[in-house]
Structure prediction request, 172 residues.
Amino acid sequence: MRTLVVYESMFGSTRLVAEAIARGVADAGAVQVLPVSHAGEADLAGYDLVVVGGPTHVHGMSRPSSRRGAEQTAERPGAEETLEPDATDTGVREWLSALPPIHGRAAAFDTRRHAPALLTGRASKGIGKRLRQRGYDLVAESESFLVDKQSRLEPGEEARAEQWGRALAGSR
Prediction:
C-alpha cells in the first residue's frame, strides 16, 4: 500500500502528528509525508491512501488571515512559538480547492486546543468534506489531536497518532 500524508503546520505540532501517522502506516507499505506547500507536485493517483491534516483555526481550516495571525504570534516579543517553514504559504483549504476530481481512499485529521470540539471547532470536518467532494471515500472518522495553549502536543498525542496510523493501514 502506498500512502501520502499531507499536512499544514504553523508551529510544528501538526507536522509531528503527520510524521507519527506515517510511522503507524509504514508497516503496510511505502509512505511519503509532505507539507502542503509541496503537495501540489504529487501525483495523487499513485497512492492507495491519502491522509490530510491541518491545525484548527477559528473553528475550521486555516485561512490566509489566520495564518498571518499565527505569524504575528510567533513574532511577538518573548513568544515561545516558532513558525514552521512555509507556514504562511498555501494552506490545506486552498490545496484541496485546487485538486481535480479523483477517486481514492482518504482520511482527515487536525490539531486543536484541548477543549470540547463545540468550543474549538475541528478543521478535520472541513478537510473530510472537501475530500469527499473531490471523490475520495473516507476510510475512518476524522481525528483530532490535542495541543495546549502554546500549541504544543499534549502528552500521549504523538503515540495516539501513530496508533491511528496503524488503524488506517488496517482499513484496506
